[in-house]
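Reposting from the mailing list since nobody answered there.

I have sequence plus structure tokens for a pair of proteins and want to know whether others read the tokens the same way I do. The first protein:
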Amino acid sequence: MLRPERMSKVSVTGAKAYMDPVVESVHELNLLHVTEYGGGWEGFVQGSPQSGAEDAADKLVTVRSLKSMLGVESDDAGPTRVLDDDELTAELEELREEVNALDDQRDELRSQLRSVEERIEAIEPFAELGIDLDLLQGYDTVQVAVGEGDRDTVERAVLDASSLTEYQVFGDDVLAVFAHPERDADENALTDALVSAEFAVIDVPDVEGDSVSPESYVDELESERRSLESDLESIEAELDSVRADAAGFLLAAEEKLAIEVQKAQAPLSYATTNNAFVAEGWIPTDRYTAFKSTVQDAVGSHVEVEEIERAAFGADGDVQVREDVPPAVEDAGPDEGVEASDGDEAEQRRAVADGSGGSVVMRNDDPPVVQDNPGLVSPFEVLVQAVGRPNYREFDPSVILFLTFPAFFGFMIGDLGYGILYGLIGYYLYSNFDSQAFKSMGGVTIAAGIFTAVFGVLYGEFFGLHVISTYFWEGVVGLSSAPIHKGLQPADIYWAQAWLVVSALVALVHLNVGYVFGFLEELEFHGPKAAITEKGSWLLGMNGLWLLVFSRLAAGTAPSFIYTVFDGTGAAPEATGEYAKAAFALGFNGFPTVVGYVGLAMFLVGALLLLLGAPAELLEIFDVLVNVLSYTRIAAVLLAKAGMAFVVNLLFFGVYETEGEYHYMLTHGPEYYAAEYGAEAILFPGLAHGGVAALVGGLLILVIGHVLVLALGVTSAGLQAVRLEYYEFFSKFFDGGGTEYEPFGRVRRFTADE
């Protein structure tokens, strides 16, 4: 779970005459993550595609084009089928001709429809004007302009034009201007005069016939549009019918052709001679025996399958840890169809020991990574992969995110109502999208919603209202209040301070896990010295500094409340009643002074180790203080989100204060509480207690406000939790950059093997 699945590099070497059945069997297994041959072996060249690869690729392009035209989706598939080559070729050609013809007709109709709609849009202003189109054009001695503008401004511009003698303006928003120019005036005299009037000219459409009214012209165009739309619907219906009939065939054809292309192009990754080939790649170690037996069952002793290394990789990219894998090489002799020189060369490339138990390989590539997490944890892989897939040498932090990210998020929001909504959003993402990324985000959101709801019950809040506290914790359980509080109210200052300290303690646990992961990685791949100086130094420095902070030695420097939140006396002596009691009554008021000196010594030793291992990083030693303090944003966001929900509810319900506690006016109006506690106790009377207009406006504020709080919960609590995971936690041990495991093969969904 913390480590990826163990991988082994294997080599498949044999006579070139048997390469096709090897490709078939390896493809069927769907296990081998192929290592690309990039050259470097004397006498070997990159392999060539098998015959038929180009034809299959062309057909695949055609199939995918037809799928796009018809809008075929994976859900449209019918039962699996077997397609032979002749059937596929004939049916594909027939379907291509039919679909292309219908698609051409559809494109032509869409083009005509766009043209008609543009003409309708162009004629609509003239319909508003109400003047026949033939009256707006065709004059010899009168100039006409139609457009949009301010009538008074247009009239003033025409009146001031010296080249125009008479004019008439018709219309209000859409104007038609008729003007008689001087005898020697320019043919654009009216247009020039209207430039200063900000007059937007509209071209008069050319129409045939006399006395054509804009209204009748629009009617003709509308009739033409309806006819085109009807024809287009008929074509769409034909295409839908073709789609229904051909969907299964296209999906099956795409799958069959994709497999053929994949197989045909496989030799491009192999190292080959005239008579031999070598293929290498990675498979899960526990599948090696099955892989070898299946390949050799297919072609017998004509190929040699060998496990050439089982590797974990160091940070520098070189093989650091590798089990000794016996070569067990069997020569592919001339009697098996390989010339002696070629067989000897292939064997030489596979079997020359490099001194570490393995064989010479095509390329020292990193093993692909298969994250090995159970079902509940696997959705959190998407958060890890947003930074990068883990390297093969690294711990996979998905399980830590599973344990911490939803808890951070839920603690900061802490509301049953919001938790239910987040859970529903997550369920929608998980159940309505085929994309694995969306499903994973749905799973993460569901987990965040569950924790938000759980903390909401503990806080006693439902959309910011303390109804759970009133009716459950007080009414059913018999407590005086909810078990924990957010610390927003004056009487709850203890809780706000307590959460700051708790955030720092959570940070120490979280960061210690990260440093321990980094220490173990350094220990495994670079030895004890590197582990102690590179990671042990930070472990000592951070824990030593915070032992000092929580000791009485720092009592005059550190905030006083960090010594009182756990001592049973509380941090708010001015509070009264239940709120004056400290919830975390552990009797702790700081470590003894001697522990502080021990912590200081640990910090100095950590700094010295860092100086020995990475002198340049010594200047960053106080990051161990800053990194932990960064986690206090958990408490800050908790108060901020609580404050936002409080304001939304305050505006609608109204709030009064008594004994340092805020209470919503859920059952009575402000007059009742003013008489009970005095007018000064009313913080805001609430829109719900005003008139009808205030009530309607208040409801809008209530709904929109809580929607905003819900959305901002993602951008504040969500992003802050992610930041703590990525920046603070991951930086202690995680680099990412791992290679995704992409085995050669394909899981058949739409076809059955012949």
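The second protein, same order (residues first, tokens after):
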Amino acid sequence: MQNTTHFAADRPLDLICLGRLAIDLYARQLGARLEDASSFARYLGGSSANIAFGTARLGLKSAMLSRVGDEHMGRYLLQTLSGEGCDVSQVKVDPERLTALVLLGIKDRDTFPLLFYRENCADMALEEADIDEDFIASSKALLITGTHFSSAKVNAASRKALALARQHDVRTVLDIDYRPVLWGITGRGNGEQRYIASDGVTAHLQSVLPLFDLIVGTEEEINIAGGSDNLLTSLAVVRQLAPQATLVVKRGPLGCAVIPAAIPERIEDAFSVKSAQVEVMNVLGAGDAFLSGFLSGWLNGRDYGWCCTRANACGALVVSRHGCSPAMPTPAELDYFLGLETTPLRPGDDATLNRLHRVSIQRKQWDDLCVFAFDHRKQFFELAQQSGVDEARISTLKNLLVQAVAETEAALQLQGHIGILVDDRYGEDAIYAATGRGWWIGRPVELPGSNPLEFDRGRTATARLESWPQEHIIKCLVQYHPDDTLENRLEQEAQVRAIYEAAQLSGHELLLEVIPSKKLPQQPDTVLRALKRFYNLGIYPEWWKLESMSRAQWQAVDALLAERDPYCRGVVLLGLHASLDVLRQGFADAAASSSCRGFMVGRTLFHEPSQRWLAGELDDAGLISAARANFETLIDIWRSRRQPR
């Protein structure tokens, strides 16, 4: 069915979403009552915010119009939206109110308890003065959700936005999004309740229906808008009040129906598209995902078959995952999902889908990456012993190295190009000092020198990832040789798979450092075959860390990554305590590579200054100065080799 909706041309925005912008705290314990939940995952939430996020992820130029509190959670929401490419210029920071909060549980496939903490919250304080005419006029469409008609202040703000939209040829979208608790017609502990008949809510909604070009709701939401418990009767009322509007009915596992004109005698006679049948983990937010998919086509003039197919697929993927906004699919995921001959009953268990969900989202880009590596544990312990000092001094030393890196970043204006590798055995305080600076931060998990690979914290290594900030990257060194004994190879591969799967669950990126055992013969293709083996095992680390290679070897690695993993973040060059002259030649070969993103060098930089500081020959300032000099010299060498590219 053709989509004949007219959209103004040459608008900088596709969609403005006005409405709820809140924190969602999802219980991690599936099957537990909310009373028994013991830990929660934090996500961006609120129906309007989810749609702004979801449409931005699908490529629309979306914007958010709301309020957040002047505090940590408000800043998190702004960062999350802007990080996905969503315009947040019209999200006001409210100095008097806190950001709204929702607690959510997943008891079973039919029970999803919610508690809304929305007393005098920031997003419900949106007022007429917050609505800027030029901003509304800059978009093709304006979406408002039902909650932002539920009180006098937000109702006035929403109506002003609608009036301006009408003046400036902006199409209008209503997501009915009926939550009885948010209209004050049920107890505060009944947030899960999706429908209670209310003449007051019906009358209020009916007063705004004529102002919309697209009206979207579940069968229950259409009924509250129409004032009947019969879907067709309600649709007829909505059509009478909004004769120009296209109506979209979300029907859950049955798919959806689109009614651009007359109401049919049966809902089955409407233009309908069936949904993929998947096993439900969490229905919360499925409607927001559905509408994100629908709008991604509608605003681009796609026919309704295309819009509904994508909308249903978005909903199916989100119901199979834990949260809402982070579960929103990317175009690459949708293309893969819709291209499958057989829809997986549990999309959340599909390895390819999960990987695409991780790697095809917008991510911070790293190039010309200059990383100071001082994650060494054995080497620092030996330096302390040789100097006859307590190993507790190593922690202070690593803190000073963080200061050296920070000073280098500032002096050379290398924001976005700086990183460190640091351990939590001696460098826990250094990790705390480095986190939040916008650096690339890697942390080792391997037991130094182990072959076959063992983890530094034993079997608890993977469990500890839950305590890591998301910006931290797992670094795992494996002395893997493709011609090793079968027993050793299988053990190494099992351990690498364990950390890879742990990374998939925790959401952290993985850097796999491959150094083939020097006890075995080295061939020109040894490293290449090692990488191929890991790919054949279905292991796709975001990063590889490799030794210096010839240009021909780099070209072979470039070709392998382009063929097997175009989403790979890249390769970084390791140092192995090489001299500056040796590194200079290695940089020349690596700089010509299309996949090499920079270097991660340690002992060449820290060994001599650390040895002197531990021996009392350098004070703190002297250590920082010497470490900086080495680091900045290496950066100059790298950048001089990199510039021609």
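Reply #1 (J.P.):
I read it the same way you do. The radius of gyration is 28 Å.
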